[in-house]
Amino acid sequence: MDAKLKNNLATITFWVGAGLVMLILGTLLGYIFYHGLKSIDWQFITAPPETVRAGGGIGPQIFNSFYILFLTMMISIPIGLLAGIYLAEYAGRSQLAEGVRIAIETLTSLPSIVVGLFGLLVFVNATGWGYSIMSGALALTVFNLPFLVRVSEESIRGVSRELVEGSLALGATHWETIWRIIVPCAFPSLITGIIITSGRVFGEAAALLYTAGMSSPPLDFSNWNIFSPTSPLNPFRPAETLAVHIWKVNSEGLIPDLRRVADGSAAILVLVVLSFNFGARWLGRLIQKRLTAV
Amino acid sequence: MKKRLFYDKAGHGVTMLCAAFVIILTISIIYYIGSKGLSTFFSNEVSLWEFLFSDQWRPDRSPGEGGPQVGSLAFIIGSISVTLLSVAISAPLGVIVAVFIVEIAPGWGQRLLQPAVELLAGIPSVVYGYIGLSLLVPVIRSLFGGGGFSMMAGFLVLSIMILPTIISVSTDTLRAQPVEWKHASYALGATRWQTIRMAIIPAARSGLITAVVLGMARAFGEALAVQMVIGNTREIPTSILSPIMTLTSAITMDMGATVQGSIWNSALWSMGLLLLLMSLFFIMIVRCVVRRGAV
């Protein structure tokens, strides 16, 4: 076989490979939305789930997912941002920096079920909180933190050095420069990174099975007292998220309209995650434009 | 003036503290999972040999009947085999697509494929599990017979899940290669395929190995998607159509149902420890490969 023919065959193989990936993606999204969008209506999005009868919704699960995401981000953004600033601005090639990098690599490749087990030991059992939103949010913080540190470090390294040197030359301290110049300049890419990691957190389930739990108490959405066990805002109640709900319904569900609930939940989960992804890019570009086109 | 300098010092201190926190967190995860996972061998006095190399899993049997036995070999084999099979599909396909994106695709191909890979990465793992369960399992059942819930369903789902990892790491590596080598190869009269095979791929080898190892790590640790499609029987698989159980799926299914401190529960923690050690092992491989590649 001559080289030309081989080259052509190889080219065809590469095209087929790429086409296959597009086909897989198309099938997946088409399948989810074709089946899912049929079963979504207002009642489904807002009603509480049923345990044995048909016609239940996923209202509390959607709320729980967003609430856990919110708490997780409140805890992990400050730590992740500050650790990222340290790596980009102070650490250099110190031993501590090397240690942090190894730790981040370790945390990133840790199976999420192991993070869940750690959460069960420390946040659920040792603190005595039991299965709770707070335990879940802390477990997700562990899961999320390495990505946030990386995002912050990269965003901060992306800020142009001339700007930083200019600020230092004017007599600002290093910290003032970081806080007034570097962080604001890194803001667009920080926001993009944070929203994309939010998408990951929103879809995560394995780390939540044994921390936030697999059930929700009956919730009274007019009860805003965060210490009441029926208040949706109480961070020390168990909470099943949307992703966990999909898993639970499929593995031990007893409801007759299981297929409808699973289809609808999967479609909503994917929709939210995708809109996080697209929203992040859009918002990043928008802020960038606002900041630079003045 | 003093205040400004104080803030400068404090800022340095606080950021250092947060960075140190990441290290402390990692160490405490290893410590807690480690001490709990080792209790099988110290408190329950199971031999390490039995745990790793026996396929007798009867944790609920009374001592009178010869139990309880916690040999996890079947789960270990299950985890290793789905991981290897999924990588066997994903590694070549992933590298092909990465080369396509970097070397072959016209502009629109890149603009289409890059976001497609990101979308694949963004789909949550329970959704992969659910699609596997409702689409793939029935297809396998009607094509090959059997129950459909099988090792095959497991590694097919996993191979799609780890594809984005392999593609994106490979793409980054290929992009980072010096373009002169490629030009030199073309100047010698090589075809594009010859250039890819003899110059581009060998040069990027360490990065490509890293991509595959990271994919393996992800496949080995994935829990829910696998648990949903593999059927979960506690036996050593005999064919790719047999239902199996993996370390992660055993933990997922039984952890909530067992009593703290019982031998069954302890054995599950040991499996968690095993997962942790495997992921540390994968990181070590990556670090070694990268270091050697840099020389």
CATH class bucket of chain A: Mainly Alpha
The CATH homologous superfamily of chain A is termed MetI-like
Most strands sheet of chain A: none
Which percent range fits the helix content of chain A?
over 70%
User: What would the CATH topology of chain A be?
Assistant: MetI-like fold
When the domains of chain B are counted, the total is 2
From the 3D coordinates, which CATH architecture of chain A would you assign?
Orthogonal Bundle
The CATH H-level homologous superfamily of the largest domain in chain B: MetI-like
Strand content of chain B: under 5%
How would a crystallographer describe the biggest sheet of chain B?
2 strands, antiparallel
Terminal residue distance of chain B: 49 Å
Number of domains of chain A: 1
Structural class of chain A: mainly alpha
Order of helices and strands of chain A: HHHHHHHHHH
Beta-strand segment tally of chain A:
0
- What Rg of chain A, in angstroms, do the CA atoms define? 23 Å
Per CATH, what is the topology of the largest domain in chain B?
A: MetI-like fold
Query: What is the annotated CATH architecture of the largest domain in chain B?
Result: Orthogonal Bundle
- Helix content, binned percent of chain B: over 70%
The total of beta strands of chain B comes to 2
Shape estimate of chain A: globular
